[in-house]
Design goal:
Pdz3 Domain, 2-enoyl-CoA Hydratase, Chain A, domain 1, 26 strands, about 30% helix, about 25% strand, globular, Tail-specific_protease, serine-type peptidase activity, Tail specific protease domain-containing protein, ClpP/crotonase-like_dom_sf
Length: about 475
């Protein structure tokens, strides 16, 4: 049932030479600009991957096919902040079409299960094939076009779950309806045809919210819930792209300035679908939890003292291409990264959170919270959220619950983000310029994320019971601790 719904969009073809040129430009940008492109793969091996893809190009290739090839190449870097995607107008045009698989899925042991009630395919059913594509190796195939930091296996899984229809479209094409074979919870194998959905609705609503995300706190950027019987406050932070003033205001409302006490004894911080953003919020959180300003020193370096391949730059740190944006970025690089080494420029060991001092930063001036802290993490816990989990996880009164984060524990390229547009496909390429290696960590997690103290993984019983297993496990831990400490 695959159809060509948009011949003038992502199915538009370019020549072999145009595609080859874009792949060559991609390699040059990565090679010259990326903060540490060869952390997990040698330059020679990566260049060979690029050359092999160029050799294998057909005489004509669609933009969608090109993005799959480029995504699989990009995956070799194992850098979660290095991202490729369709040119923005083409992406908007594409996802406006009704051509995407319509159901949210849950990945359990690399198998796909329906995580939705309002469907003719029952909740909890195992998907066996979609438009004759077997799901047996589907997770492994789709993982090749995602990104993650190092070898953390969890981020690709959660990424596929949240955008399954889009990844399936990239790899296997558009459809206005899908022939699906599935197995019910009772073991019956059935075949059915379901209608496609529009991609923009699917992505905006996170697939109409899988069952375990239907609670109000997952429909907002941030939320507070109180469980009075456990003297527990649940702080849900689904993004760090929100204004830090929100957190400051909300926490202040739970604090008595006269008695210097909070009205709760346990704090749960839910970071499971938080992919990062504004790192100023980490400053406030850390002050609130410890009474001290955040000190997280790191060794940093960049491969160039100025922005490279200027003719392809579209924006720098979210600012559209301009002389001012280039000047600001280059001045910053030359100010800090002065020590020249063989293939990079180093900055002194610094606590980069000092950069947030001044008028832009909020400070917590009350007493620190001295109770027990439970941090919920998953593969979607990434970038600044993964940093927070790593930093808090070193504290004696903090317990991490869930699964390995998708953000690197020891070090990753993530700072100063430059966006490029490839010349023929206009494919967008996001490149982190600065590599950061954290000082206050052990070397045991090299190439991996931050691990939980209590591992709670998804299983079919929890899915069928519509159970938020990580949160329930955490509340059980709290309830077992009947002697609440004083804050």
């Amino acid at each position: 049932m695959t159809v060509s719904l948009f011949a003038n969009n992502s199915n538009r073809t370019i020549t072999r030479q145009e595609a080859a040129n874009d792949l060559e430009v991609y390699f040059k940008i990565i090679d010259q600009q990326h903060g540490n492109p060869y952390q997990y793969i040698s330059r020679e091996a990566f260049q060979n991957f690029v050359n092999d893809q160029i050799e294998a190009l057909p005489e004509a290739i669609s933009l969608k096919q090109f993005e799959v090839i480029l995504s699989e190449l990009n995956n070799q870097l194992l850098c979660g902040h290095t991202v490729v995607k369709m040119e923005s107008k083409l992406l908007k045009s594409t996802i406006s079409q009704t051509q995407f698989f319509p159901l949210p899925i849950k990945i359990i042991n690399d198998q796909l299960f329906v995580d939705f009630e309002k469907s003719i395919i029952p909740h909890g059913a195992q998907l066996l094939s979609i438009n004759k594509v077997s799901t047996e190796n589907l997770v492994a195939e789709l993982s090749k076009i995602t990104v993650t930091d190092g070898f953390s296996p969890t981020k690709p899984l959660r990424e596929i779950e949240s955008k399954f229809g889009y990844y399936f479209f990239l790899k296997y094409g558009a459809a206005n309806r899908f022939d699906v074979q599935f197995k019910t919870a009772e073991g019956q194998i059935k075949d059915i045809q379901i209608e496609a959905t529009a991609g923009n609705s699917m992505l905006a609503n996170n697939y109409y919210r899988p069952i375990n995300l239907s609670h109000e706190r997952y429909n907002r950027f941030t939320h507070l819930d109180a469980i009075d019987s456990l003297q527990t406050l649940i702080l849900t932070l689904n993004t760090f792209r929100a204004n830090p003033d929100w957190f400051h205001e909300k926490v202040t409302s739970r604090y008595d300035e006269e008695t210097k006490e909070f009205d709760f004894e346990n704090l749960v911080i839910d970071l499971r679908i938080n992919e990062g953003g504004d790192r100023r919020l980490l400053n406030i959180l850390y002050q609130f939890l410890t009474g001290d300003k955040l000190n997280d020193p790191s060794k940093t370096y960049t491969r160039a003292q100025q922005i490279q391949m200027e003719e392809y730059v579209s924006s720098i740190n979210g600012r559209l291409k301009s002389d001012e944006a280039f000047s600001h970025a280059n001045d910053y690089l030359q100010k800090y990264f002065k020590t020249e080494k063989e293939d990079h420029f180093e900055a002194p060991v610094l606590n980069w959170y000092d950069e947030f001092e001044g008028g832009e930063a909020k400070n917590w001036n009350g007493a620190k919270f001295g109770g027990k802290i439970y941090v919920l993490i998953s593969g979607k816990t990434f970038s600044a959220a993964a940093d927070l989990a790593r930093i808090l996880g070193q504290m004696a009164n903090v317990v991490l619950v869930g699964e390995e984060t998708g953000g690197a524990h020891v070090g990753r390229a993530a700072n100063m983000i430059v966006n490029y547009s490839l010349p023929h496909t206009q494919t967008s390429l996001q490149v982190p310029v600065i590599y950061e290696e954290f000082i206050n960590v052990s070397d045991g997690n090299v190439g991996r994320g931050t691990f939980p103290d209590y591992l709670v993984q998804p299983n079919l019983d929890d899915l069928m019971a519509k159970k938020d297993a990580v949160l329930e496990y955490t509340l059980d831990l709290i309830s077992q601790n009947s002697n609440y400490g004083s804050n």
